[in-house]
Amino acid sequence: MAFVSTRDLNAVLTTRLAAGDPPEVSILPNPGFMHELADSRKLVPLHTVLDMNRIRRDYASSWLDLGTHHRKLYAIFYKATSKGTIWYSPKNFRAKGYSVPKTWEEMLALSDKIVSQGGTPWVIAAESGAATGWPLTDWIEIIVLNTSGPDIYDRWAAHEIPWTAPAIRRGFETLGRIVHTPKYVYGGPTGVLATNFINGAYVPYTSPPGAYMNYLGGFAQTFIKRHYPNFEPGEDYALFPFPTIEPEHAGGITGGADVIVLTKDTPGARSLIQYLSTAKAQEIWAKKGGFIASNKNVKLDVYPDVIARQMALQLTNATVFRFDGSDLMPAKVSDAFWKAALEYVNDPAKLDKILKSVEEVASDAYGKGKGG
Questions:
Q1: Does residue 156 contact residue 328 with C-beta atoms inside 8 Å?
Q2: d(CA 298, CA 329)
Q3: Crossing angle of helices 166-179 and 134-157, rounded to 10°
């Protein structure tokens, strides 16, 4: 079995499947593609391959639900990333007597306190080349999940409710409570649009701090460790969970993961996917860092530091986990979402027009029958 990588997975895999030459095991970027392939009967159901009693013991139901299509398991999630993470400097917090907020209102109160003392609460960095805007959509997605719950989130991602729906408008406006409050954000709205998301990860650790908090996925740890190689995890940098907005939807986490599917049923492919689903296999990679296992029986002590262990607990214990919403949407809808978030930061008065514009793109992409 040979490993083949590509930057255009959808096109390459679709072509090989159409030609009757599928790879044995495929690693997909998101569940949306998995559902398409399962609908086309291009995947092997994993209940015929895996010991499902063990799988149910090893994986939280949220992960199994994500890998299920029409009541059959088609995917195992391997390398996972939490997007429920807000990064900060414990030393800088202690120096000012700041406490980690647990609720949205506490977080706003802390932001007000930081401003009153001459500081900047937030760095929000949206620049990412051709993909500029996605860090803003991460904010909106986790806000929608934590204000309106998983059912609304799922219906939104599938375009079963329109982009003009109150829940989606609220997601944008709640982000606006941060980005459009004077002195809340490093560089103001212009700084949001101009600052690269990797460079933004460094801002809370300058002296004096350019900002005190940064909402960014768990991969931010890689950037921080590379830029500040002498930093001690948990002391020089740390994270706290995205705060509760509505108590009835507390703890909702968004994120991503590698999606492993069986595209050709061979003995070797069965053995590989059986092995990759185990805690033993995932522990090997977890020890190296930059990897959070979805198998909840991976021992916490294999992770290289306290931050990685914290993210592992967050993901494996999540009662509500949803894949990054824009990754579930058709590419042109995702692109329109990125653009809409940027336009909203630049001019919040145009929110109605912005949401209607995305709705037009989504209606075309999904078909006129959906979205309300």
A1: no
A2: 31
A3: 160
Element (H, E) at 17: helix 9-18
Does the structure show a pLDDT above 90 at 371? no
Asked whether the beta carbons of 73 and 64 are under 8 A apart, the reply is yes
Q: Is the pLDDT of residue 32 over 90?
A: no
Domain of residue 170 covers 85-249
Beta strand segments in the chain, E: 25-28, 68-69, 72-73, 76-82, 85-88, 214-215, 238-241, 253-262, 292-293, 321-323
Count of structural domains within the chain = 2
Q: How far apart are CA 44 and CA 160, in angstroms?
A: 28
User: Looking at the predicted structure, is the pLDDT value of residue 334 above 80?
Assistant: yes
Q: Can you read off the two tokens belonging to residue 297? A: 């029986």
All residues at 6 or more sequence positions from 94 whose CB lies less than 8 Å from its CB, including other chains: none
Query: CA 293 from chain center: how many Å?
Result: 15
Does residue 352 form part of some domain?
no
Residues near 350 by Cβ (< 8 Å), separated by ≥ 6? 343, 344
| pLDDT value of position 125 | 98
Integer Cα distance of 74 and 57 in angstroms = 17
Same domain flag for 271 and 283: yes
- pLDDT of residue 276 exceeding 70, the answer is yes
Model confidence band, residue 11 (pLDDT cutoffs 50, 70, 90): confident
Tell me the sheet residues that pair with 293.
79
